[in-house]
Amino acid sequence: MESNGKKKKDYSLFAKQAVKYYSVGVSGVLVNLGILYLLTDFLGFWYLASQIIAISISITTNFFFNRSWTFRDSIENQRTGEMYVKFIIVSLVGMGIQLGITFLLVENAAAYYLHAAGIAIVIAGGINYILNRRWTFGIKF
Q1: SS3 breakdown of the chain: % helix, strand, coil, rounded to 5?
Q2: pLDDT for residue 55
């Protein structure tokens, strides 16, 4: 049976990593929304095509920041290439969630596409954190 001290330490690590993960995520959101805005408003791309490109670019930068900073001390014996493939898979799931929510909000609720994308990012980000922490980076708590 786990001691109370071990549970607190595990929870503290979870919370610390969550803060780092979301800090990395904020930089990814800025990249994502900046590219989305640039491609849609300045280059005339359809907002969903722009969002696919923007998400794709932010996936790689987020992976390397999370690998080298967020989960650095918790990763054991996993190859970067294998983790990157897992991260992409999880990110594609998140992309599907983001695109679906964005589309629903824009087309059915007449939301501004950037606002809809921001809401979608928050929802997909929580799901991505849990999946990446556990499956991509192999942290079992």
Answers
A1: 85, 0, 15
A2: 82
Phi, psi of 45 (to 5 degrees): -70, 155
Q: How confident is the model at residue 63 (pLDDT cuts 50, 70, 90)?
A: very high
pTM as predicted: 0.73
Provide the residue count of the chain.
Answer: 141
Token representation of residue 111: 């939301």
Q: Are 41 and 114 a contacting pair, CB within 8 Å?
A: no
Tokens of 46: 């359809």
How many degrees, rounded to 5, is the angle at CA 22 between CA 7 and CA 137? 60
Specify the DSSP class assigned to residue 137. Answer: S
- Counting Cβ atoms within 10 Å, is residue 74 exposed (0-12), middle (13-18) or buried (19+)? middle
CA distance 141 to 125: 18
Question: What is the DSSP secondary structure assignment for residue 77, as one 8-state letter?
Answer: S
